[in-house]
Design goal:
The structure holds 2 protein chains of 2 kinds. Chain A is α/β, with parallel strands linked by helices. Chain A is built from 12 helices and 11 strands. Chain A has a single domain, classed as Thiolase/Chalcone synthase (Peroxisomal Thiolase, Chain A, domain 1, 3-Layer(aba) Sandwich). Chain B is built from 1 helix and 8 strands; from the N terminus they run αββββββββ. The chains are: A alpha/beta, B mainly beta. The interface of A and B includes residues 132, 135, 194 and 197 of A.
């Protein structure tokens, strides 16, 4: 146990055009999370977001009337920052450096800066080594990694499509999902256009979304003051020197995800749990093949076995490991993975729209980082 | 149009070598570990001293994709490849004159320098597919 709980969650609607500033989205989501936690903005004494978030902490404090704040930090990177940001909040609370930490992420990622589009400027210099040769979008950057999985195990784009069909089925019954009431078939998936041949079709790609999400992490001994506390059983983050910035081209075996496997080992050691103890999972999927690599890295199935595991329906509501029960980043929205943490909280609380019975433990994976949520004992 | 290539200070030796038709790999001057992409410090021993090794230009394709620009349909697609050089390091490049429509996994490749965005650039072709005028008969 970490001695910490998720006390509150909050979010805006998820859309393609929010019609308001990113700061307003951050403020709306944050205030909702603070009130959901049974706190007031003045109780917030820590703030954490992603390095790539454009919302300045000081300015968000001013909007909320928060603080005084005595802890702030940012988790490096994009999607991997979701659970990594939670780890920073847990660290601050567990060490007594803060009591009530707000974790937030908000952007106009469809109506403003679109992640899916080629970049005018390449970012840090190591990315030049990819961009010079045509790797100018996240889809291409990740597809070059995923292709080796396909070659090694004979996985096909149709195999990846079976994940999307499952995710869209959950989204279809989630009123907050952009793809609410719009399930797809495998034929629909196979008819969608290639984005990066021979790896990713349109329906393998996450959405571009506008929205904001926030959570409040606080001390477990505050549990009596909280309406619906959820224990943070373990949190972990693992990075290796043989990776590069969002380009995992240097692992010995590109058909594996060693950093997620290391994160999984840390999570299971720290929680005392095993994969069999996980009732439901929320897995960051910028693109559908990532789910396959992560399921294998976490030991839910062996190398290459995610293909039959998913084909057999194990990610569905009645499967062995219901996964991305909100519809995932493909089906609900792409709020950089932090909306998947919220779905984990809802599953443990028992308030999810696609609720499972008797959830004791929910895994949330966001690339290199992850956490396990659970009921309070 | 593509914008001119940016050359970061740590990468300058690579492009200077490429301008001379040489595929260079950064090598630690203390422990001889090869590294790519270039970096100022050796991750194996911490040394800041480095020189270069010239690659044979031979390797194999670890993975590949077809790259189409999402909103410039007139731009020719390229085959992006990750090459494992015989020396052991990997680099991203493009496959030129592909002999078929794929798949290209594990195919042996050899470097060929061409002008790209105003700079001599190491690209790769499938080994044995050299054009007759370039083939050296022994």
């Amino acid at each position: 146990m970490t001695g910490t709980i998720v006390a509150g969650i909050g979010a805006t609607e998820f859309s393609k055009a929010s019609g308001r500033s990113e700061m307003q989205l951050a403020a709306e989501a944050s205030r909702a999370a603070i009130l959901d936690a049974g706190l007031t903005p003045a109780d917030i004494d820590g703030m954490v977001t992603f390095t790539v978030d454009a919302n300045d902490e000081q300015e968000l404090m001013r909007n909320l009337g928060a603080g005084p704040v005595t802890w702030w930090s940012r988790a490096p990177g994009g999607g991997t920052g979701a659970c990594a940001a939670m780890q920073q909040a847990v660290a601050a609370v567990a060490t007594g450096l803060a009591n009530n930490v707000l974790v937030y992420r908000a952007f106009n990622e469809r109506s403003g800066y679109r992640y899916g589009q080629p970049r005018a400027v390449a970012g840090p210099p190591p990315l030049d080594w990819y961009r010079n040769f045509g790797i100018d979008t996240p889809a291409k950057m990740y597809a070059l990694w995923f292709r080796r999985y396909m070659h090694t195990f004979g996985a096909t784009n149709e195999d990846f499509g079976r994940y999307t069909v499952s995710a869209r089925r959950y989204a279809a019954t989630n009123p907050k999902a952009w793809f609410h009431d719009r399930p797809i078939t495998l034929d629909d998936h196979q008819a969608s256009r290639w984005i990066v041949e021979p790896v990713l079709r349109l329906y393998d790609c996450c959405q571009e979304s506008d929205g904001g999400v926030a959570l409040v992490v606080t001390r477990a001994d505050r549990v009596a003051d909280v309406d619906a506390p959820v224990a943070i059983r373990a949190v972990a983050d693992a990075r290796h020197a043989d990776a590069s910035i969002t380009a995992n081209y240097y692992y010995d075996d590109l058909a594996t995800y060693p950093e997620a496997a290391r994160c999984a080992r840390l999570l299971f050691e720290r929680s005392g749990l095993t994969p069999a103890d996980i009732d439901v999972a929320q897995v960051y999927e910028n693109f559908s093949p990532l789910v396959f690599l992560v399921l294998e890295a976490y030991g839910f199935c062996g190398p290459g076995e995610a293909v039959p595991f998913i084909a057999e329906g194990n990610l569905d509501i009645d499967g062995a490991l219901p996964t991305n029960t909100h519809g995932g980043l493909l089906g609900e929205a792409y709020i950089h993975g932090i909306n998947s943490i919220q779905e984990g909280v809802r599953q443990v609380r028992g308030t999810a729209v696609n609720q499972l019975a008797g959830v004791d433990h929910c895994l949330v994976s966001s690339l290199n980082s992850g956490l396990v949520l659970g009921r309070l004992r | 149009m593509d914008e001119p290539r940016r050359v970061a200070p740590d990468d300058a030796f690579f492009w200077a070598g490429a301008a001379d038709g040489r595929l260079l790999i950064q090598r630690c001057a203390d422990c001889a570990t090869l590294r790519h992409p270039p970096a100022p410090m050796c991750g194996a021993c911490g040394s800041l001293r480095w020189d270069t090794a010239e690659s044979s230009g031979r390797g194999r394709i670890v993975t590949w994709i077809t790259s189409v620009h999402p909103n410039r349909p007139d731009e020719a697609p390229r085959i992006v490849i990750l090459v494992q050089l015989d020396e052991g390091t990997r680099l991203v490049s493009n496959l030129i004159d592909p002999p078929h429509d794929g798949p290209y996994d594990d195919l042996p490749v050899v470097v060929e320098f061409r002008d790209d965005r105003g700079a001599r650039t190491p690209l790769f072709r499938v080994a044995g597919s050299e054009t007759p005028s370039l083939r050296v008969d022994s």
